[in-house]
Amino acid sequence: MKISTKWLSDYVNVDVEPQVLAEKIERTAVEVDEVYRLEDGLKKIVVGETLKVAAHPNSDHLHICQVDVGEDEPLQIICGAPNIAAHKKVIVALPNSRIAGNVKIKRGKMRGEVSEGMICALQEIGFTEGVVPKKFVDGIYFLPDNAEPGKPVYPYLGMDEDIIDLDVTPNRADMLSMRGTAYEIAAIYNKKVSLPHLEVKESTKDNVADYLKLKADTELASTYLMRLIKNVTVKESPLWLQKRLWNAGVRPLNNIVDVTNYVLMDYGQPLHSFDYGKINGNNITVRLAKAGEILTTLDEQERELDEHDIVIADDKGPIALAGTMGGQSTEIDGGTTTVALEAAVFNSSLIRKTARRHNLHSEASMRFERGVNRATVAEALNTAAQLIADLGEGEIVSGVAEGSLEATTPVEVSISLDKINKVLGTDLTIDIVADIFKRLEFGVEINKNVFTVSVPPRRWDISIPADLIEEVARIYGYDNLPATLPKGELTPGHYNYTQKIIRETRQLLEAAGLTQAVSYGLTTTAKAQRFLMQPSEATQLSFPMSSDRTTARMNLISGLLDDIAYNVARKVKNIAFYEQGRVFYREKGTERPVEVEHVAGALTGLFETATWHNTKTPVDFYLTKGIVEHLLHTLGVTENIRYVQANGHEEMHPGRTADVYVGNEFLGFLGEIHPNIAKEYHIERTYIFELDLKKIITMPKQLEIYTPISKYPAITRDVALAVNKSIQNSEIVSCIRKNGGKNLAKVELFDVYEGEHIAVNFKSLAYKLTYQNKKTTLLDEDVSKDFAKVVAELKKEFDAEIR
């Protein structure tokens, strides 16, 4: 809501700087987005009068203008606006002036002719295109005839007014109007509000009952009123009205529509004007739309109506979408002579659903959704009718057509002084609190220490004692409330076991060189169903924010691949990301998904770049596997870990993917993504892993216990064996550990060979076995005995050939 301090001063006299006022509003009522004045930053922009306009000899669209700017001689200015004409008052930027965007205007030549300045459109001096009158959008603006050449243009256009842009919260919809804001400012500064009230001058020749018969369901419209204004001339609004509208962020259209918008900003009451001559019959009904009904709204969109849409209908069908937008069939135009003016209070819930259903959010629908002052509906209607009659030279038909009318009474709320002081931690007196309620212009009665407060309908947000406490706190001043520490026994905070594991997981991956990424929990259905670790139904949103965020994710990899693609597209090619978060699995037949903690990583390019003493380290399968091993071992999962070649992941590269097991428990997978997936994301070879962190958390773990380094020497034995290619390293290591004896401390694979001197389909694996006893020196014969047993078992189990 854009508040002009000049307009505000008509209602309440507060003589403070705009920035000071804005700060006070922000600390007391609602947030302030911006404080500005349109003339700020502009320089030497004055009124000019075009004396002569001639075609440019070297251009088919430029004109040479002689312009009076209040100096001894007129200036010659070249102008390309299509609507330029002689004897018009225009906006002129003089030589060495500054226009919007801090652009400096200098003397120069255009197609060989001297130009001493610039004739400006409203957009060129800081007006947004959305508020410029349509007839001047593609040309220059003509000032009123009484504008004096040479004078600054700012007062003529309202550019000398300070504007405070309020970010009004839904609970303070009363401040979506100048009058509501005036009451708030008056309470803050302890001033009195003085509001004008137009007297309605009705024609006694006829009555509105002869023209209109209204019918409204009170469940749809608790108040529905209409007035009729005859013999109206539709024309441009006076400049005072246009200034108030564009400073409020509204485009002026004509005197009829402008009045409804003016009253909307003044009272916060949405109105709608119909061309009475285009209404079929005399009956106007407020009802729900019928299935299949069609309405073309003022934005020229044909809309199929829903059975939950409230419509205004005549004898043939809908003519407006109630509280949202009017219909094109009854639009006010240059031929309108009789105006039917509507004021109402519609069902806020249905209006909100209609606005969302049709994606048609307007100033009117926003106010009906949040609430309007039900006590001033008739007054707003009367004010608008009188303004239309005055500006359109028409006459108001006597009487108000009534479809429904809600009686409004103040809401009474009681609260004790003790309760106020207890909640706020203050020591306020009865007089102070009573004065605050009076400043808000609430009625108040005091019985001992209890206040009975009569809240007027303009503050429909107040209905319970807690609301009154908030009002006292606001007006008294939040900065005046005492700052105290809470009392009571304090419990030291700490992480539970799950939180500790999650945080340790993040720390380990970051220490390993990965960077944390945070992806959206919502994605497309196709991406959600990739990289699944268990069967699951997709969980889709009823009202997604966009087509890319329709489904709850069932993996973390898709989000990481999006992040990698984003970085690669910006020339960042060496990436190592991880993400820890939840995925959402849903069984068939259930409504709600189950949230499961996962951890995943994605790496591409170089893990380490080359330096003067180190070679580069590209990302590959074994580096990714090493990160997973490091993570599991450090978290304490050290027993029975198996990496099994996997072929069941269609998004993964066949032959370069391994499933991770702990015993028979499937924990996750790692490997290279399928080339088709990499191509889809426009990325190079990428390796990923994803683990079920919930299973890791619940698994039994080997605690790290300090053990002293043995002071006795170790003995090593090497063995090289040729085995079939189908035999995995993990099987051989398991056999060695099983038969190596109690002194076997470590098994290391240090060589793999295939090729010459090895049989076809065979490979050579070489292992180093380390034996050590922590209590005594090992004897060579004891080690040889244990080693011989290992060799014998390898030959027996794998038909290995010892080399």
Draw up the topology in text.
Elements: E1 2-4, H1 5-9, H2 18-28, E2 31-37, E3 43-55, E4 63-68, E5 75-79, E6 89-99, E7 103-105, E8 108-110, E9 113-115, E10 118-120, E11 142-143, H3 154-157, E12 162-167, H4 178-189, E13 202-207, E14 213-216, E15 221-230, H5 239-247, H6 255-267, E16 271-275, E17 283-288, E18 294-296, E19 302-304, E20 310-313, E21 318-321, E22 325-326, E23 339-346, H7 348-357, H8 363-370, H9 377-392, E24 395-398, E25 401-404, E26 411-416, H10 417-424, H11 430-439, E27 443-447, E28 450-455, H12 465-476, H13 497-511, E29 515-516, E30 522-523, H14 525-528, E31 551-552, H15 557-568, E32 575-585, E33 594-604, E34 606-608, E35 617-618, H16 621-635, E36 641-645, E37 652-662, E38 665-673, H17 675-681, E39 686-692, H18 693-698, E40 715-724, H19 729-739, E41 744-753, E42 762-771, H20 780-798, E43 801-802
Parallel strand pairs: 13-24, 14-17, 29-32
Antiparallel strand pairs: 1-12, 2-12, 3-4, 3-6, 4-5, 6-7, 6-10, 6-11, 8-9, 15-23, 15-24, 15-25, 16-23, 17-20, 18-19, 20-21, 21-22, 26-28, 27-28, 30-31, 32-33, 33-39, 34-35, 36-37, 37-38, 38-39, 40-42, 40-43, 41-42
Helix pairs in contact: 5-6, 6-9, 7-8, 13-16, 19-20
Alpha carbon gap, first and last residue: 87 Å
Q: How many helix segments?
A: 20
Largest sheet: number of strands, sense, barrel closure: 7 strands, antiparallel
| Top CATH class of the largest domain | Alpha Beta
User: Cα-atom Rg, whole angstroms?
Assistant: 40 Å
Helix content: 25-40%
Unreliable segments of 5+ consecutive residues:
none
SS-derived structural category: alpha+beta
Q: Could you tell me the strand content as a percent range?
A: 25-35%
Number of strands: 43
Name the CATH architecture of the largest domain.
Answer: 3-Layer(bba) Sandwich
- Domain module count: 6
Q: What shape does the CA trace take?
A: elongated
